[in-house]
Amino acid sequence: MDHPYADLIDLVVDERRTGHSRCSIRLADKHMNPHGVAHGAVLYALADTGMGLALYPTLQTGELCATIEIKITYFKPVAGGTLVCTTELVNRGKAVAHLESSLHLGDRLVARAAGSFAIFRPTRPASGPDTPPRQETP
């Protein structure tokens, strides 16, 4: 899988199939906040990526998905070890999918997340910093 952000944070895809994923991060110093525990954004990124991994196999050719919102609840601080995220697809409609992720450190549940993703077909290429904005004609 070509995923530069996942590579940046050392995210590993352990299992992926339609409606399910399991991914993990072996925590290192770069994942920690100033208090010596994993930064909440690391757990969030693990859940967000896990949700995308579980949803992508359900997409038709030409469809994309994008996060609409994710609500995450942190239960316990994580100071080290391997953080594992398991995600299940709860419901997939034509335009919106709902997924849930559980994040564990060993057998301890440390966070849960619920997310909604848009499912769509792009009408034009995505714009980036090197892409000039398109002029719409009336």
Oligomer: single chain
Which CATH top level class fits?
Alpha Beta
Number of domains: 1
| Tally of helical segments | 2
Q: What is the CATH homologous superfamily assignment?
A: Hotdog Thioesterase
Indicate the CATH architecture.
Roll
Rg, rounded, reads: 17 Å
Q: Identify the strand order in the major beta sheet.
A: 1-2-4-5-6-3
- Dominant shape: globular
Mean pLDDT rating: 91
The rounded distance between the terminal residues' Cα atoms is 40 Å
Describe the structure.
- By secondary structure, the protein is of the alpha+beta class.
- It has a single domain (4-120), classed as Hotdog Thioesterase (Thiol Ester Dehydrase, Chain A), CATH 3.10.129.
- Helices cover 15% and strands 43% of the residues.
- The protein is built from two helices and six strands.
- A six-stranded antiparallel beta sheet has the order 1-2-4-5-6-3.
Helix-strand blueprint:
Blueprint (H helix, E strand, L loop, with lengths): L3 H5 L2 E7 L2 E7 L13 H16 L8 E11 L7 E11 L3 E10 L2 E13 L18
Antiparallel strand pairs: 1-2, 2-4, 3-6, 4-5, 5-6
Offer a few descriptive terms.
138 residues; alpha+beta; Thiol Ester Dehydrase, Chain A; 15% helix; globular; disordered C terminus
Produce a short descriptive summary:
The protein is an alpha+beta fold.
